[in-house]
Amino acid sequence: MLPFIALAVALSAVRLFLTFSPLGGGAAPASTQTLVFTVLWIASYVAEATAGRLLWRSRSRHTYGRAVVVLFRIQIGLQVVRLVNFMAARLLPPPVPWSAFATIALLVAAGAVTTVAAWSIPRAASVLLGAVLAWLLVVTAITGVDAILRYGLPIS
């Protein structure tokens, strides 16, 4: 389980770097909002890593356990794409922010499917993924509103 948690903390460190470095859009001052978001992202990554470990350990005990692990891997892949999109949205002009919104919306859909599919395998993994899904819904709303306020609706 420690490698999963180390990966979660490493992803959070990348997120912090992108938030506070010039590469990520300028050295933003630390604020309560930034610190809360950082803690929530770290908690999200740790919950996701723990759920992944639970799914991995139970994959051979259930008939569709391996399929749920594949769904989980897709979800993790979308997390990586979302992180790259986050960096690109800070560095590139529109329509990249809309791409970031679409990526996180797709991640929410994948997270919902994985959460439901994992319910009967290890229920604890499904509960953890449900908590991650709730956080991703909040982030999706924030990303969408931010894109609308900054760039307007993507309708010509």
TrEMBL record:
Q: Name one GO cellular component term.
A: membrane
Chief subcellular location: membrane
The regions listed as transmembrane in this protein's record are 36-56, 68-92, 98-120, 127-149
Asked if the record carries the keyword Transmembrane, the reply is: yes
Pfam families (UniProt xref): TspO_MBR (PF03073)
Which keywords appear in this protein's UniProt record, sorted alphabetically?
Membrane, Transmembrane, Transmembrane helix
Q: How does it sit in the membrane?
A: Multi-pass membrane protein
Highest taxon listed in the record's lineage: Bacteria
Query: Where is the protein localized?
Result: Membrane
- Similarity-based family: Belongs to the TspO/BZRP family.
List the protein's name. Answer: TspO/MBR related protein
User: What organism does the UniProt record list as the source?
Assistant: Amnibacterium kyonggiense
**What is this organism's lineage?**
Bacteria, Bacillati, Actinomycetota, Actinomycetes, Micrococcales
